[in-house]
Specification:
Strands 1-2-4-3-5-6-10-11 form an eight-stranded mixed beta sheet, sandwiched between helices. It is built from twelve helices and eleven strands. The protein is an alpha/beta fold and about 290 residues long. Helix 1 links the parallel strand 3 and strand 4. The radius of gyration is 18 Å and the shape is globular. Helix 1 packs across helix 12 and helix 2 crosses helix 3.
Length: about 290
């Protein structure tokens, strides 16, 4: 895959009553739209997006409402509203029938969008998300889900927070953009203390939405090719069975496992993930 450097433009687009931020990597080919996970941001895709853009694909990485550079209202974190945000942004950007790829919660958003909007998506990529519904776990009541999925509350010096980049990119040339990803996820006060940008109450609205979503009920409604990209480490039987179920219920799907990877595939395996997405984008374009 080409390795020339692509420089994205930071842009805004309207959602439903909010202004959304996105990184537009340019390109004139098939549009690839990238969605991040819960309490994450568009910069998690930087290592993937640069490689995709270098192949000539048009690449857009969107900050969903409340995340990264997008506005953060006090509500609207249900799937219906977040999908309307995405619909409005794509219309404003002139993007039709993109390849839609989501990581973690972003995969659940992408799945909901594709299932409810027949013909709107040329291909769907679910990166370690959109598989096992939160409520499907044994003993997972809403109260238990809210306890387990509540975000940590932290207040740490910004440099300590940015030092976490070494966990993902030390010695690989990734340190810079991983630090940028970490910086985009926090607010910093005048003493240099970093705290999560995505507010606790809004985070819990997303947890409730995930609890109510049933991915398996959406699979038969998806009318485009689907690529599953599950992480292979720390995989229990329930998650493996969820992948097998998705392959049975989705009308047109295949899976590529990312072994030696724990959930954050875009951070840990950007080159491999970009190569897989580029192949899938070309396949989807060939199929029209």
């Amino acid at each position: 895959m080409p390795t020339k450097t692509s420089t994205p433009a930071d842009r805004t687009a309207p959602g439903e009553g909010v202004t959304l931020h996105l990184r537009d990597w340019g390109g004139a080919g098939t549009s690839v739209v990238l969605l991040h996970g819960l309490a994450s941001n568009a910069r998690i895709w930087d290592g993937v997006a640069a490689r995709l853009a270098a192949t000539g694909l048009r690449v857009l990485a969107l900050d969903l409402r409340g995340h990264g550079g997008s506005e953060q209202p006090d509500g609207g974190y249900d799937f219906a509203t977040v999908c309307r945000d995405l619909e409005a942004a794509l219309a404003a950007l002139g993007v039709r029938r993109p390849l839609l790829a989501g990581h973690s919660w972003g995969a659940n958003v992408a799945l909901q969008y594709a299932a409810e909007r027949a013909g709107a998506v040329a291909g769907l990529v679910l990166v370690d998300g959109g598989l096992l519904g939160v409520a499907e776990r044994p003993g997972m009541t809403r109260q238990v889900a809210r306890q387990r999925l509540a975000p940590p509350r932290f207040a740490v010096p910004l440099e300590d927070w940015l030092a976490r980049a070494g966990r993902f990119g030390a010695g690989t040339g990734r340190d810079g953009w991983v630090r940028d990803y970490l910086r985009a996820g926090v607010d910093v006060d005048d003493r240099g203390v970093a705290r999560s940008r995505f507010r606790f109450d809004n985070h819990m609205q997303v947890v409730d939405a995930l609890y109510d979503q049933r991915p398996a009920a959406l699979y038969p409604l998806v009318g485009c090719p689907v690529l599953l990209c599950p992480a292979g480490d720390d995989l229990d039987d329930a998650r493996r069975e969820a992948v097998e179920r998705a392959l049975r219920l989705l009308p047109d799907a295949r899976a590529t496992w990312f072994e030696d990877t724990v959930h954050d595939v875009p951070l840990q395996r950007p080159a491999e993930l970009a190569a897989e997405l580029a192949r899938f984008a070309n396949e989807a374009a060939d199929r029209g």
